[in-house]
Each structure stands twice: as C-alpha cells, then as structure tokens.
Write a structure and sequence with these properties.
The chain is α/β, with parallel strands linked by helices. The chain is about 35% helix and about 10% strand. Strands 7-8-9-10-11-12-13-14 form an 8-stranded parallel beta barrel. Strands 2-1-3-5-4-6 form a 6-stranded mixed sheet. A two-stranded antiparallel ribbon has the order 15-16. Bound molecules: 4-O-methyl-beta-D-glucopyranuronic acid. Belongs to the glycosyl hydrolase 67 family.
Length: about 675
Amino acid sequence: LADDGSRLWLKYDLLKDAQQRDKYAALTKFIAANHNSPIVASAVSELQMGFQGLLGKKVSASASAGSRTGGVILQVNANAQNLLEDGFAINSQKGNIVISAKTPSGVLYGAFELLRNIQTGKSLSNLAIVSNPKVKIRMLNHWDNANGTVERGYAGSSMWKWTELPFRIDPRYIQYARANASIGINAASINNVNASSRFLTAEYLEKIKAVADVLRPYGIRVFISVNFRSPRTLGGLKTSDPLDPEVKQWWNDKTKEIHQYIPDFGGFLVKANSEGEPGPQDYGRTHADGANMLAEAMRPYGGIVIWRAFVYKADPNGDRFKEAYDQFKPLDGTFDPKVIVQVKNGPIDFMPREPFHPMFGAFPNTTLGMEFQITQEYLGQSTHLTYLAPMFKECLDSDTYAKGKGSTVAKVIDGSLESHQNSLMAGVANTGSDVNWTAHPFNQANWYAFGRLAWDYDLTSEHIASEWIAMTLAKSKAGQETIKRMMMQSLPIYISYTYPLGTAHMMGEGHHYGPEPWLEKSGRPDWTSIYYHRADSVGLGFDRTGKVSNALSLYSAEVQKQWGDPERCSLDYLLWFHHIPWTKKLSTGRTLWNELCFRYYDGVEQVRKLQTDWESLKPELDKETFENVKGRLRIQEKEALWWRDACVLYFITYTKMPIPAPLVPPT
Ligand code: GCW
C-alpha cells in the first residue's frame, strides 16, 4: 500500500530486522499501570498500538507487575524526585522498564519517548532518562475559521468539522491529539485570532466541548480566541469598554458558562487593536486594561489570558519594527499575573529571517510568551522545502544580554530569566484537511520540530531532523543522512533566493506568495515593499541605526554593538539595520550588488542540488512520497527562478550595473 503520510511520525510499521524486534520484545512483554485515569489509559493503548505495529505482538496490560520481569511499568507518583509537572523518568529497574511521572500527562509523554526510542532504533537496556519540559504551555494556535477555511493555511480546509460537531467526532481529532501528545504539546487554541464572536455562542461552546473531550485524555487543554467586541455583538451591550461594569459582568458570566462546558478550559487568546480587530483602545483604554479584565473573569479558574503583541500603525514615516515595543513598554508591570503577552519571534511578521523581537529581554515585569509560525506564510507555503527548526532556534538562542551574557530569548520565554511562574511557546499550526495533514510531506517536520523545541529548546535541529526522518522516510543510514542534509540546507537556500542579506517583506500582496519587490502602493502604507527594502541609486537596506529609524536602540548595548557597525554586523542581518552602498565591499570580498546577485543565483543552483539529492533516494522511498516531493521540488525550482529574476532585475533598475559575469555567462 502506498504511504499517504496520514500517520505522520506515528507510523509504527513492523521493524524489518527480526533480531532487533526480538530484543525489544524481550523487554516489553507486558504493561502494568498503577494508575487509573483517562490519560494513563491513553498511554497504555498507545504502547499497545506501538508494540503491535513495530514488534508485531499483542501486549496485555494490567494494574500490577506482580513478580514478573521484562515488562513496562507506568507509575504516577506525586512525590517523584527531580521531576516537574509533565516531566518523566524512564529507568531500567529490577528487570523492568519503569516510566514514572508526577502526573498522568508525564506518564503519557514517557510512553511516547519509549516508543520513539524503538522507532529510532535505540537500545532499551540500562535506561536512565529524566526529561522535564522547559516551557509550561506548549501550544498550537489554529487560525481556523467557522466556515471551514484556514487563514494562512496551505493544507486544505480546516481539520475541525464545525458543521458535524458535536454529533460526529472525526477520527482525525484523535490522531491529532496523539501526534501532539507525542511531542509534548499540551494546549491548542482552536480558532483564528481574527476571531468570530460565534465561537462564544452556546451552539459553538457545545462543539468546542466535544473537541475538548477528545483532546483531554491526551493532556491537551483547549483555548478559544475571542473577539473583543463580543459583549456588543453577542451580549447586545452598548459598549465593550473593559472598564464598564456591565461589560465585566458579561465576561464573568461568559467565562462561567464556558467552564460549564469545559471545566479545564485553558483560557482566552486575544488579538486586539491589530489589523482592524477591535480592542480596548477603541474606548481609550490600554492593552493591559483589556487583558486584566479578562484575567479577572478567569480568576476563579485555572486558565489564563494570552494577549498578543502583534500591533502596528499604518505610518509611512514610522518604523513598524518599533511599534509593539513602543505600545507595550509603558505597560510593563501592569499586567495581571494571569496574563501572558505573546510576542512574535521577530519585530515585523514571520519573515524568513528576522532579528529577535526587541521586546524579549526588555519586559522584566511581564510574562512574555513566544509566537512562532509553523505554517509557512512567507516560507514557501506548501511547495518549498523549508525545515524551520534552525529558524526557531536562531531566535531562541539569540542573546538579549538583558541580564548579562547568556540572557537568551529562550530564558526569557521559559520564565527563568525573570522568575516568572508561567511560560508559553505557541506555534501557528500548519495542519489542515489534506490526507497527510500538511500538504508538503516535509512540513510535517516543522510541526514535529516545534513541539520538540517547546519541550526542550536545547535539542539540536539536526537531532530533531534525525528523529523525524527515522520515524517517517528513508530506511538506510545513508538515505537518512541525505535527507537530513537536505533539511539542514533548506532554510539557508530558501533565504538565498528570496530574502538574502537581511532583506524582508518583498512578497506579493495579499497572498504573500512569490516576489513583488516593486510594490509601491498597498492598502497600508507600511505594507509596501519599498517601505522595507529602501532601495535607491546609492544602496539598499533600512537604516535603523539612527538616520532613518532608531530601532536598534531598543536592544541592549551589547546587541547594539553586535549589529550597529556595518563592518561587524552579520551579513544575515545587514540590511535589517543598514543602508549599504551597492559598491561597498562586504566581508565575502564581493560588493553588495555582486553578493546579492550571487546569493540569488546560488539559491537557484542549490535547489537543483536538492533535486539531485532527492532523485538519489528513489530506490528506498515509497513511490507516492517520492513523486510528491519531486513534483514540489520542481515547482520550487521554477519559483526560485521567479524570485531570482524578479528581484535581481528589479534592483538593476537602481544599480544600473550588470549581473556579474560568472553568474550569467556571456552569450
Ligand atoms: O502576518 C499576518 C498575517 C495575517 C495574520 C496576522 C496576525 C491572523 O498575514 O493573516 O492574521 O499576521 O498574526 O495576526
């Protein structure tokens, strides 16, 4: 049977090597679980399913191991040492493998870790694993709409079948829950941040309850994105002013009602006063007024309020880079402890490469959460192969120097730098109704990598890629290495032929796909391409060191030093901060113009190499996956040419210089 990718990384195909199977089988003869809860039951059934598939044997489960050895014991022990909530330990103990955790969720994560060890061919003897999540709320944000569309979704329509719920439960909800639990994701906001009030109606709460009931046995809590104007649109009030007593009461009542459906409701996610969405500023109030009002409504319950910091003004003379910082900075310290402010990784909008957001490290008195975009709005959508773990890590590993060297973004968002109680890493989901969930088979790896990094941002991108490949694609060691190399090269390649040297935001308007560097007019004055690249006859790039904008000054002195001097600034970020003359010689020995051309041309060549690499894997891949990726790589080549020619020919109108000879041989 062809592999349609629907099982993601939880394929559990029979291991080919019989000896290896026997070895694992000798250590997994039975399952004993000392705890009776739906989540532990999920762990047991997952282990049974995994052993059945991978090892080809039925394994029975009971409450106690008795005097037996050679089995897997699951233990929930509230006093377990060295473990945080959700953490787990796996030890070889007296002839058994013991998975212990403080909570049922920890046991479930441990069970998936054990399966992953088998899936990736690791030894199960002398196990001594301790694993704790670095971030508490590891969350997917779905931008799914009630009408079944997905904003910036490239894998079909919404996976949530709102018209069928609550009566029919699509089996894919369970697969989705399993996939998330396998990588430690424990929260999901189920609807678009451009939120319809409809999701707060009794009709929809009943549907959301049905989803929550499916996700709960996998340790996943449901959040709802809310429209700030709901007291007016749903409640019939005259205002949605967060300081109005009736408005407060409306939210208190609504929050109570939600908890009648979903007792463990995760909380609200809010996009307010951003891109036309309503918010507290409509009534002369601040983001903190709005967020704190909702936090007050959540006071009696366990959940929280996640308030997004993605705000900007349409000011052609301002710098959008600074907008969120400027609006939120005066509010630092005024947010309720139940509020997490969710900040995109970079200051603009999920560009393929952005410097880390200047809010990280500059808000000691606010819990800041991370928002990554897993769906590839600006990263080739569902046709270009782009492995995002290195991008996520580049941001997390960046040093803010807020409290001296080592004050990384990761330490800001895990709460450790400023001793915050809560912590959050969210990823905008790339899931949809396509059979393989993500359209491009490799996009599955980005979902996988996001979860693994939210659990442990110290994992390397290579390590995560290796795990994913071993569980999904090629079976030979050499084949796995080839795929890993392709994945590791993919983001730099994509950046080369789209946004080299720190350029940004030159994509087609609206669809955000393909190049449009010449875009001069748009619905919003700071959404044109020329606003971002600032090309002129002298050079290219947005001076943020003071001449045009002083955005660099938002960072700590060390970061300013690192990026402020064009001679020392990494070429990756150069044009984010500097307007560089076309003729200026860069550290590569080429002038800016020649380097720019070189990167665009080299990017295309590298895509061709990816195609050759993929071709070499044909003998060991199933036909469907092979052909699927092959076809997408052909589109990628065509579109890399499109980006290259569009951008180079456009910039030539400023440079009036030829494309350097070695790139285009004379005819
Ligand atoms: O990048 C922009 C997207 C919008 C999105 C917005 C946001 C949900 O183009 O589609 O809206 O970001 O993050 O709010």
